[in-house]
Amino acid sequence: MSKKKERQLPETLGLPPVGADSHAHLDGRDNDVDAVLARALACGVRTVGNVFLGPAAYREGRALFERHDDVFFLLGVHPHEAAKMTDADLADMRQAFSTDHRLRAVGEIGLDYFYDFSPRETQQLWFRRQLELALELDQRVVIHCRDAEDDCLEILDEMGLGGRPLLWHCFGLGPEWAEKLLRRGWHLSVPGTVTYAKSEALREAVRIIPADRLLLETDAPYLSPEPYRGKRNEPALLGFTALEIALLRGENPHELWARCGDNARGFFGLAG
């Protein structure tokens, strides 16, 4: 009987410590943030964006990152929770952004018609309200959109987000949609699903994303790249996504790694 093929360890990829995971959910899972971030740095990930899904998560989880200055924050109410959102949540978000310099974007916000955990009209209402808040605060926006692209784009266009700093999180669409978003001046963040053989449209799309508007993300603990698909994702695995994209684009992996890290730090207004 043949031995099962061993997975390559992420620290053996040899990537320098200049990478950036633009989108991860590290709070509220196992409370092993220190170990997760230590592994990330050992694998070349210097900067991580932690996404707090609502004011309560922010209040409860922020202290986990007090000793980790290279973690920045995003804050927004996910469309799954739109039915529970209130004006008080918006007020809490406004207050948080006014006092915490590590909050760098309103997100992830948007529409999710795949699960429809909240009524679509309610999702649209609170998507608009959070976009209004982002415009009021002159903050960047990070979008969650699943099976709702037409409605999402219509709302963003209607509210004048074209040309403003906006990141399409977990981009998984094809070249046609990539071009629509890029024409509006936005950035695209690509997750580990690009390593899946069946992600043909996404694999084609990453070839046309301009070098200065491509970011990398894990969306940890979800969407682990090959060869760790099905396991808990974490920033340490980001290098596998980078290597696959470099292969698809015909680029030097180290150069792409560094550039995508710089793109993330530039987009979120972080020191290089």
Automatic annotation (TrEMBL):
Write down the superkingdom of origin: Bacteria
As one GO molecular function, the record gives: hydrolase activity, acting on ester bonds
Record keyword Hydrolase present: yes
| UniProt xrefs under InterPro entries | DNase_TatD-rel_CS, Metal_Hydrolase, TatD-like, TatD/YcfH-like
Pfam families hit by this protein: TatD_DNase
Q: Does the keyword Lipoprotein apply?
A: no
Which residues are recorded as binding a divalent metal cation 2? H144, H169
Q: Where does a divalent metal cation 1 bind?
A: H23, H25, E108, D219
Q: Which Gene3D superfamilies match?
A: Metal-dependent hydrolases
Q: Where is this region: Disordered?
A: 1-24
Keywords on record: Hydrolase, Metal-binding
This entry carries the following GO cellular component terms, namely:
cytosol
Family of this protein: Belongs to the metallo-dependent hydrolases superfamily. TatD-type hydrolase family.
Q: What is this protein called?
A: TatD DNase family protein
Organism of derivation: Desulfomicrobium apsheronum
Q: What is the lineage of its organism?
A: Bacteria, Pseudomonadati, Thermodesulfobacteriota, Desulfovibrionia, Desulfovibrionales
